[in-house]
Amino acid sequence: MLPETSLEEGVKLAERLRLSISNMHLHISETQRINITVSIGIAPVSLHIISVDEILGITDPLLMESKHNGKNQIYYESAGAPRGISHRDTHLADYLSSLRRGEHFFAVKQPIHHLLTQEIVAFEFLTRMRHDTLAMPNDFLKAALENNMITLVDHHCFNACVAASQSAPHMTDRHINLLPSTIMDIPAEKLVEKLSGLNQTKYCIEISEQQILGDSTHLAETIRVLKRCGIKIAMDDVGFGNTCLENLFHIEPDVIKIDKKCVMGISYQPTMQKTLQHFLRIAKDLNAIVIAEGIETREDLETLVQLGVTLGQGYHLSIPA
Residue 20 gets which letter from DSSP? Predict the structure, then answer.
């Protein structure tokens, strides 16, 4: 990390470092020695970068190109044009560059309905990417994770959803997803700042329960800051396991979204119905609103209403658009 340093100065320093290291040798015996070389990737980083994950997302591809071009190499970008880049995997490189820069992201919205009246009470905003084959979150988030820029890309998605949410009807809530890792990596104040000037009490941050790895108490401080600003917290993709219950008690969400695997086919599965009833009692103890996801048939909808679920979303009600 070289603050207040030009790219030219960074390249010169990297070259001095490379030469210095390449002149070092490790003697392991009188007749054997090990030569040491170094590959270096250099990238200018904006002052707006707010997490280590974002820096790695920018620099790792350069380091990989440096290694690909041969040992003991420096690789850097100058005036937007990569130096020393090969033409292999051009399409993948362009795709990753678009992810890194937050290009071609847009948001669609799926209504959340009151199940008795069919009234729309909220919208969940979902990110898409303008790409022929890799347009869905499962695609671009997987690519982001594999290339060490998951926080950066998730933050781009958040920004796209915030922008799209401003066109929602005034009285409806706006649900936006964030990965647990993003909530831990980005200061809460930066997230709140994105909603400045908006009615923050109408926003709900959805955190996927299935993506919480390890101790969920690490999310607690950021969640407290968000709640103090009037932003609601939803636990998304909630199943019926013990780990799920621990996360619920740690985070104390305002909204619990039941995963579609626990909803689809509930009309003909008595065991699933009993489990949901038990879960509804837990939600009541937590003073949390329950939303059923993945409602795709009239029979499941009617069963959910009979069990006491009042809010839901799914293709039977409306599709993302």
Answer: H
Contact 320, 109 (CB under 8 A): yes
Domain 100-312, what fold?
TIM Barrel (3.20.20)
Please write the tens of the pLDDT for every residue from 222-258: 999 999 999 999 999 998 776 688 889 989 999 999 9
Mean pLDDT of successive 10-residue stretches along the chain, which has 321 residues: 74 77 73 77 73 70 66 63 45 85 95 97 97 88 89 96 96 96 92 94 94 85 95 93 82 96 96 95 96 97 98 96 93
Tokens at 89, concatenated: 């995997």
264, 276 contact by CB (below 8 A) = no
CA distance 279 to 284: 9
**Length of the chain counted residue by residue:** 321
Q: Give residue limits of the domains in the chain.
A: 7-88, 100-312
* Strand segments (E) across 227-308: 232-238, 255-258, 289-292
The strand ranges marked E within 9-160 are 25-27, 33-35, 40-42, 74-78, 81-83, 105-114, 120-129
8 Å CB contact between 100 and 152:
yes
For tokens 């009151």, name the residue: 114
Instruction: Report the b/e string of 184-223 with b at 16+ CB within 10 A.
Output: ebbebeebbebbeeeeeebbbbbbbbbebeeebeebeebb
Cβ–Cβ under 8 Å, residues 238 and 282: no
Structure tokens at 254: 């305002």
DSSP state string for 56-84: HHHHHHHHHHHHHT-SS-EEEEETTEEES
Nearest to 253, CA basis, from 218, 213, 224 = 224
pLDDT digits (tens, 9 = 90+) for 257-284: 999 999 999 999 999 999 999 999 999 9
Q: Is 252 left (phi over 0), alpha (psi -120 to 50) or beta?
A: left
